[in-house]
Amino acid sequence: MEQLEKDIRSCGLRVTKQRIAIYDWLRNHPVHPTADVIWKALLPRYPDLSLTTVYNTVNVLAEHGLIRTVTIRAEEQRFDGNPADHGHFYCRSCQKVLDFDIDKPSVSSMLPAGCIAEKCDVFVTGLCDVCAE
Amino acid sequence: MEQLEKDIRSCGLRVTKQRIAIYDWLRNHPVHPTADVIWKALLPRYPDLSLTTVYNTVNVLAEHGLIRTVTIRAEEQRFDGNPADHGHFYCRSCQKVLDFDIDKPSVSSMLPAGCIAEKCDVFVTGLCDVCAE
DNA sequence: TGGTATATTGTAATCGTTACAAAAAGCAAC
DNA sequence: GTTGCTTTTTGTAACGATTACAATATACCA
């Protein structure tokens, strides 16, 4: 609770109940929702929340590195409450998205010479363990 | 020239001059253009080419694995004439995109147990060698 | 407790992309 | 070649996700 406020404040942003609600929800739901999904999920508890605010907030949070943007399908943007570098596995059969840890050094070793990595996402498509049979 | 036709035909697709033009252009321009960029580039030589055809064609080619879709900025889709698994480095300073080879085995070793990788993209943001100074 | 900068809201606009129906072109069989 | 059927292209109109904007409300520093 307190930590979320601190995170937001430490970016020089004002603390509002909308920002806390959205940030909190993203942190506690390890799915990769669109802005619309976040909005619909919070609407019962925050009936006045506008979709525009959700868009504004996730953009601001992502800009400051508190959350991440993820592209699963090109035509819609998704968000991830986990701001650390990690990979996403997308099962083309059941459409599930699985997070996985990545080995930063081995990714860095693949980069063109002289490039400095700041943010890194590994996106793999295929079949998950359940669908693989 | 001939090979492009073969590629298209081997997917069960009809060979048209629009498809050859778009596929050929993508193969020979190692940039990561949007549909709009491809369209504008080909318009002088193919004044009747419609933007809709570019969209249709890149979607069909990508479906059959002849090209790839790449997401650099979430709000627009880009295409890549190289259909092989490879990584993209995006320089946040000069906006340049560099391709790099990826080590498939080491990426596979990061995946959740039992998952079968079919397509893989590593996307890294940071500073390129020129901007790093 | 005020005053001011920042955030939220709702609506309207924008942008990239796709749906659709008519016209054109590919291609296989004759 | 020519025919006929199927696929592709085209242009326009629609669509959906996202953003711009101006008015209102809120956070927070003095």
In CATH, the topology of the largest domain in chain A is named Arc Repressor Mutant, subunit A
CATH class of the largest domain in chain A: Mainly Alpha
The CATH superfamily of the largest domain in chain A appears as Winged helix-like DNA-binding domain superfamily/Winged helix DNA-binding domain
Give the tally of structural domains of chain A. Answer: 2
Spatial gap, N to C terminus of chain A: 43 Å
Structural class of chain A: alpha+beta
Tally of individual helices of chain A: 5
Give Rg of chain A in angstroms. Answer: 17 Å
Averaged pLDDT of chain A, please?
93
Poorly predicted tracts of residues of chain A: none
Q: How many β-strand runs of chain A?
A: 5
Fraction of residues in β-strands of chain A:
15-25%
H/E topology pattern of chain A: HHHHEEEEHE
Task: Quickly give the CATH architecture of the largest domain in chain A.
Answer: Orthogonal Bundle
